Amino acid sequence: MNGEHSLPDGSLPIENTNEVPQPAVNDPNAPNFIPFIPAVGNGFVPIPDPNFTNMTLPLNGVPSQMDAMAPTQTISADEIALYDRQIRLWGMQVQQRLRQANILLIGMRGLGNEIAKNLVLAGIGTLTVLDHELVTGEDLGVQFLVTEAHIGQNRAEAALPELQKLNPRVELYTDADDIKEKLPEYFHSFDITIATGLPVDVLCNINMACRAYGRKFYAADTHGMYGFIFADLCLHDFVVEKPRSNRPSKIGDMETPTRSVTAVDSKRENQTITDIIAYHETYTPLRLANLSPLPARSRNTRRSKMRVTPLLSCLRALFDFQSQSGGHLPVIRRPADLAMFTRLANQKHLELELLPETLRADFLRSFLQNLGAEISPVVAYLGGYLAQDVINVLGQKEAPLQNFLLFDGEDFTATQYSLHPINDDAMAMMNTNGLPMMPGPVPAEGPVTVT
Amino acid sequence: MPRDQYARQSLGSTYRLVKESRVLLVGAGGIGCELLKNLVLTGFGEIHIIDLDTIDLSNLNRQFLFRQEHIKKPKALVAKEVAQKFNPGVKLIAHHANIKDRQFNLEWFAGFNIVFNALDNMDARRHVNKMCLAVDVPLIESGTTGFKGQVQVIKKDKTACYDCTAKTTPISYPVCTIRSTPSQPIHCIVWAKSYLLPELFGVSEDEPTELDHSGDTDNVEEIEKLRQEAQALKKIRESMGSDDFAKHVFDKVFKEDIERLVNMEDMWKDKKPPEPLSYETLEQEASSINSSIKLDGQRIWSPAENFIVFKDSLSRLSHRLAEEQSKASKTAQPLPTITFDKDDDDTMDFVAATGNLRAIIFGIETKSSFDIKQMAGNIIPAIATTNAMVAGLCVMQAFKVLRGEFTRTRWLWLWNGSLRTDQLEKPNPECPVCSVAMGRVHVDLEKATLNDLVQDVLRTRLGYGEELTVLTDAGIVYDPDLEDNLEKKLTDLDIEDASFILVKDEEDDNPRIDLRLAIEAKKPTDQSKPVALVEKEGETLDIPRRPTKEDAPNGGDVDGDDANGSVVTNGFSIAPPTVKRKRDLVDDDAASGTPAKKLQGPVAAEVAKNSALNAIVIDEDDGTLLIADDD
Ligand SMILES: [Zn+2]
Fold first, then answer.
1. B358 contacts B182 by C-beta, under 8 angstroms
2. For B186-231, what is each residue's pLDDT tens digit?
3. Which chain A residue shows the shortest CA-CA distance from B610?
């Protein structure tokens, strides 16, 4: 892994660009999130070399604690009995790796509750839950770790006792700080940071702080029947076992533009031969992924374009809306909000080269109707998916999410979209020194209106 | 803001239907706990939860309503108590009972808007399926195995029912493979569990279902030899409790029987003959091992360690049996036996050690007791995350069911993280369960005779002619040549409350399709008639005529436009045959090539990874991987 200097598609690594998170300048309500990556001299991030002259990539080259700490302690018989049904699925080694993991979970609304439950049940080592907000009445409709008696208390602290009961073996910590006030060093100690319910600017900053320390990052959010999960695992190595195929994998094979084969082995059990293939996966940070086009195979035919969910355009529109409006969600009763959101959605849809007829007014209306809400079955699905991906990543088994998952509970779709800059885009991005490369807002002339 | 703020916002007018609904959740296991949480939080008005089981330590990694202090308590009751705190506003009713109990009759089922199945066995699933069809209540059926899961909506006349597709039958092994020519670890484990243990501690007359006798006639001689062997073992059983019992058993099954096999030279032309074990040698080796060490279930034991566990578990089982027999002899109860239970360490240790000793003899790889437990006990891996995702999908389907939008419900498959959807199948016209017409009768069981049913209901009310047959589970109770039963009371024919009878129209001319009548013990309003057909207001039971050959519906015409990828690997069907049309929705993952190919991938991978699953000794549980929830 240390010898990798360029992305598998031949482009330069785009992580560690010298981009600096831009605070929203004109908005007095902008999230109080001054770029927290300490500025050195020119205001660039100090540790990655912004000019890519030093190609040893110290940050991603340093194995995370997770990789470095080979499981040593043995798991007790009691633990084996407790985790019996999952050890039978993923094996002892994964269970040992879980036990050594240190995870940060930001946001303890309904989605956070589900993620925390699943990770604690699985038996991760240490979990810190961070939330600076207080339990509200509507929280009770989707959070099962708090009750009416907790209204007005800090969400993370209120959830702690019930969370601990799910598995007394897990070391739990709470943090009532506002995540926006954390310094980047804060993220250093966590193998994985999971951020839920935050505006995109905050997510991008956390993402870059994690990257600066070679730490893995997940973002997730939900709006009623809809939701998304994003993963930036920097560089990730994992193993997949599959039955011997007719076209065996070879070292160096590029299975996708971001996935290469690093080792091939096999084992025989009775009559079946199983290939054990090690992969190396390269990731794109959220800020770049959010500007990246759809992969060619999702946009090269009309049919493939028809299948792309309009949720992607809406989600990007929502990200921009929040960036431009100080983090708040569009208010459905406010015509100016609706107009702005609709304009953004149409713009994003066009940028993605999607067909106008796939962004229908009824979908926009439904999306807006759901904004800000959380419902139990949807957060259960998203929380289950995300926690399992985290477990797989910790265990370095199974292919992880690459990199967006969009969920639509009306249509029962949970589709992975791998959004990466293609070569030219990446180069252009770097040449702009991290400034947004998108043109300014295009005039509102999209075909869709919401009334 | 109130707790239902978000549900109102997101669900709109559906929320009122949710609030007013009455739902039944069958099973408080892995999916059940998650489902109950979702239902309670979302605000389903009244929720009944039923489960027969009690809580076990190995449940706690995923059945998150349960904690250490709840172990051995009834799942349904604890689940209710814990989940009630999530939302004091919903009405929760728990039943620690078997869903097949007669108290849960059709009238009871008919009182629900939706039934959720979160079960771990095929038998109960089939029962609920039948009950829901009989009263036309929509059923949301779900199951998980490891990283995989599925959710299916079953609605009478609109979608396929649980029994519309044939389910995999349990795997069984030819007797000779188990008794004479094992070649895989599973063969040795089945031998230990289904032959040796029952011969020594059980009732050997009970034929284990894992043994397949269909090939017996080809091996008459060998089968006779095996019978004699078993007889000899029974003799040895009589010395149970004596000091040399262990040596007797050992020498019989690990030495003499093997020597006999070795002498059948024809058998070993192409393979290595077995090598008998020596009791004395192993005893010698074992003497240098500290036998009090707690043997590690993860590690593969040495021959001497297997020997120690064999002797130790045999002695434990012998003492237990002797104790129970002496107790039973005082009360004139039938002689107690010991049967295999994966959670009974004595039987588990015995099976692991003897199975491994046999494997050593035949040059077969030995296994850790952890692995043997899975193979012998048919343990299905289960994790919290898959259950959470599947339970979430169940409730999202329920929103559509409550709105009556059955065309928008789907067959959902969770396949190692990816969600696949498919149209729900149309009912299978050949399905023995749902292709029949269904009706209910109220019966005054004190008075009603078969004649009341045949004359008043079938002939007079429904217009059947002379030629008809009435069947119960036990067989024919009436046809025109069997009139003796007509004057008998229904109860004398075992037609009781909550039972079903089947009516076949045998007229040559335009016969009706079969009719399944559900019997409900309830005095009909018209006192003069002890049997009365139940019909909802404004509806009359209309039994369609059997389709003739020409206008038979062409089944399976539902959008069959997708790639054909059959998903049967190693002759072991993992999913219902419909999987070939699964549409792969993770369409951006170029790694897996074309959708058809992708379907092959994970399926075969699953088989390879869980090769133990290939060789599961299935008890009464599902052979179909995808439909098994954990317990
Ligand atoms: Zn059917």
1. yes
2. 999 999 999 999 999 987 555 566 777 766 666 777 788 888 888 8
3. A89
Asked if A89 is an interface residue toward chain B (Cβ–Cβ < 8 A), one would say: yes
* CB-based burial, A164-192: b 16+ in 10 Å, e otherwise: bebbeebebebbeeebbebebebbeebbb
For residue B306, say if its preceding peptide bond is cis, omega within 30 degrees of 0. Answer: no
Residue B283, pLDDT above cutoff 90 = yes
Task: Please tell me which residue, B480 or A29, carries the higher pLDDT value.
Answer: B480
Same domain, A250 and A121: no
pLDDT of residue A1: 36
Residue B349 has pLDDT above 70, yes or no: yes
Angle between helices A110-122 and A376-395 (to 10 degrees): 40
Region(s) of chain B under CATH 1.10.10.520: 185-363
Q: For residue B287, give how far its alpha carbon lies from the nearest alpha carbon of chain A (Å).
A: 26
Say yes or no to pLDDT of B44 above 60. Answer: yes
Q: Give residue B568's pLDDT.
A: 23
The reported pLDDT for the residue numbered A13 is 33
In this structure, the answer to whether residues A54 and A151 fall within a common structural domain is yes
Does A76 touch chain B if contact means CB atoms closer than 8 Å?
no
Question: According to the annotation, is B32 in a ligand binding site?
Answer: yes
Q: Is B293 near chain A, with CB under 8 Å?
A: no
In chain B, positions 409-448, which contact chain A (CB-CB < 8 Å)?
Answer: 410, 412, 416-419, 421
Q: What is the DSSP letter of B343?
A: T
Contacts of A148 in chain B (CB under 8 A): 88
Instruction: Evaluate if residue A64 carries a pLDDT over 50.
Output: no
B519 is in an annotated binding site: no
* Same-domain status, A46 and A193: yes
CA distance A68 to chain B (A): 25
Q: Which CATH superfamily is domain B185-363 in?
A: Ubiquitin activating enzymes (Uba3). Chain: B, domain 2 (1.10.10.520)
B122 is in an annotated binding site: yes
Name the helix (H) or strand (E) containing A99: helix A84-99
Rounded to whole angstroms, the maximal C-alpha distance in chain B is: 85
Give the span between the Cα atoms of B387 and B375, in whole angstroms.
22
